[in-house]
Design brief:
This protein is 65% helix and 12% strand. It is an alpha+beta fold. Strands 1-2-3-5-4 form a five-stranded mixed β-sheet, covered by helices on one side.
Length: 311
């Protein structure tokens, strides 16, 4: 039965019952209604409206549930579906909405995968150029400064040595940026070594990172290792930039046939702030490999990021 006929039938039933009550009830209405008769008619009207509202609420309840789901749906948290309860057009509308979500989540995952693949390729290219071109140029500048400093008088030599030191620091910074853009240790030595190197890098930046990497980790595909590494990198970056954390625990453990990454800091926590581009980027990466990502404030403060990758 269509929605129109359902509503029409409900209203017809209510009005029919009201008419039968007026026909067979021992109540009469004078030409000029008395107060008691007016009160009886008013009470009957109120009861009729209440019955009609109750029946319509029950009949349209699935639409209200659908509206709530539509206003809270988030494609970065897939799997939210509404049970197709109801009759006729309402059940068909809910089924169509669930099918639409399936298509949107599939298309979102596909487009995000292409975007992140392009992003990784661009990072690789930029890191290669930083290392091969700018890095080599600065190395040549260092050698020239060293040669000129040897042939310069003492006052000029000291200034050249200062310039040489600044250039060396710039070269080290460029190499550090290149390593962040393209984690060569991940490709050469694997995920555990890459996470240890990442923790050491943030520890030297003024934040103590306590790392714990299990020794019985399963063999993971390259794309899964990259997702785990990028989530750990983004979590440590957020802790250093936004949380004002002093200590961070980075734990990578085996979970069934997969792995579980947990990064927990002692900083300010989320404090109800909306998710930024960094967290949403982590969610998109997690979707690519079918992982579950949770970001929440810890029980004693700070922020906890947990990534679970099933086999």
């Amino acid at each position: 039965m269509s929605l129109f006929w359902r509503i029409f039938s409900l209203n017809a039933a209510v009005l029919t019952v009201a008419a039968l009550v007026l026909l067979f009830a021992p109540v009469t209405v004078s030409t000029t209604a008395r107060l008691a008769e007016a009160l009886i008619i008013l009470a009957g009207t109120v009861l009729t409206l209440i019955a009609n509202a109750a029946m319509l609420r029950v009949g349209l309840a699935p639409l209200a549930r659908l509206t709530r789901v539509m206003t809270t749906i988030d494609l970065l948290r897939p799997g939210t579906r509404l049970a197709a309860r109801g009759h006729g057009e309402i059940a068909q509308l809910i089924t169509t909405f669930n099918a639409m979500l399936d298509r949107l989540e599939t298309e979102r995952a596909s487009s995000a995968g292409r975007a992140l693949s392009a992003q990784e390729a661009e990072r690789h290219r930029i890191a290669q150029e930083l290392h091969d071109e700018i890095g080599q140029t600065l190395t040549a500048v260092l050698l020239d400064l060293k040669r000129v400093a040897k042939a310069s008088p003492e006052p000029v030599r000291d200034q050249l040595l200062q310039v040489q030191e600044s250039t060396r620091n710039s070269l080290d910074e460029i190499r550090r940026i290149a390593r962040r853009l393209r984690p060569g240790v991940l490709e050469e030595l694997g995920l555990p070594s890459a996470l240890r190197a990442l923790a050491g890098e943030f520890t030297t930046a003024g934040m103590a990172v306590r790392r714990q990497v299990a020794s019985d980790l399963p063999v993971l595909p390259k794309e899964v290792e990259l997702v785990v590494y990028r989530v750990a990198q983004e979590s440590l970056t957020n802790a250093a930039r936004h949380s004002a954390a002093q200590h961070v625990d980075l734990v990578l453990a085996r979970k069934d046939d997969g792995v579980q990454l947990c990064v927990r800091d002692d900083g300010r926590g989320l404090r109800g702030a909306p998710e930024g581009a960094g967290i949403r980027g982590m969610r998109e990466r997690a979707l690519l490999v079918g992982a579950d990502l949770t970001v929440e404030s810890g029980a004693t403060g700070g922020t906890a990021v947990q990534l679970v990758v099933a086999a």
